[in-house]
Design a protein that fits this description.
Layout: H1 11-24, H2 30-33, E1 35-43, H3 52-60, E2 64-70, E3 73-82, E4 85-96, E5 101-113, E6 116-121, E7 134-141, E8 145-150, E9 155-162
Antiparallel strand pairs: 1-2, 1-9, 2-3, 3-4, 4-5, 5-6, 5-7, 7-8, 8-9
Length: 167
C-alpha cells in the first residue's frame, strides 16, 4: 500500500469539519469518491482521540473502501485482507441529501485465496431501510484523504492509495 501523502486532520479538526458539513454540506459528488481508500484512523463514538488498537488492527488487515462509477451508479467494495486471504463485501451505493450521506447495501460477500474465489454468497439484508449502513460524509481533501461518520457513530479517515478501485 502507498504511504499517505498527508496525515489528515486531527480529531478536533474533524469535528469542526463535520459541523461545517452539517450546516453547509460538503459539495461532494460521486466522482469525488472514486478510488481505493485505505483506512488510516478511526475514532470511536464520542472520542476526540483515534483508537490505537482498532486502527492498527484495521491497517494491519489492509481495510479499504473501493468506490467506482459504473454506468452512472456507484459500486462499492469494503475489503480486508491478510496475506493472500481477502474478504470482500460488494454492493451499490448512492449519495443522499445535501451533506450527503453515502448510503449503501451489499449484494455479495466473497472470500478469495491467492486471487481465487473460494465462495461468494449474498449477505443477510437489514429488515428495514432504517437499518441500512451509511457514511455521513464530512470532507474530501485534495491531499488525498476522505473523512466520514459511520452509522454506528464512529469517525473514519481514509487515504487514497489508487486512482481507481482494483479487484
Amino acid at each position: 500500500m502507498t504511504t499517505p501523502i498527508s496525515p489528515g486532520p486531527t480529531g478536533p479538526e474533524l469535528l469542526a469539519l463535520e459541523l461545517a458539513a452539517r450546516h453547509q454540506g460538503t459539495g461532494l459528488v460521486a466522482g469525488d469518491l472514486e478510488g481505493c481508500w485505505q483506512l488510516t484512523q478511526v475514532w470511536p463514538k464520542g472520542q476526540s482521540r483515534p483508537a490505537r488498537f482498532s486502527g492498527a488492527a484495521l491497517r494491519a488487515v489492509g481495510a479499504r473502501l473501493e468506490l467506482s462509477l459504473v454506468a452512472g451508479s456507484l459500486v462499492l467494495s469494503n475489503v480486508v485482507s491478510l496475506a493472500s486471504l481477502e474478504l470482500r463485501f460488494r454492493g451499490r451505493a448512492q449519495l443522499v441529501g445535501r451533506r450527503p450521506l453515502l448510503a449503501f447495501h451489499f449484494d455479495q460477500v466473497e472470500l478469495n485465496l491467492a486471487g481465487k474465489q473460494m465462495f461468494c454468497i449474498p449477505p443477510p439484508q437489514p429488515s428495514s431501510s432504517r437499518q441500512q449502513p451509511f457514511f455521513a460524509l464530512i470532507a474530501r481533501h485534495p491531499d488525498g484523504w476522505l473523512a466520514a461518520r459511520g452509522r454506528g457513530g464512529g469517525l473514519a479517515l481514509w487515504t487514497k492509495v489508487h486512482p481507481a478501485p482494483i479487484g
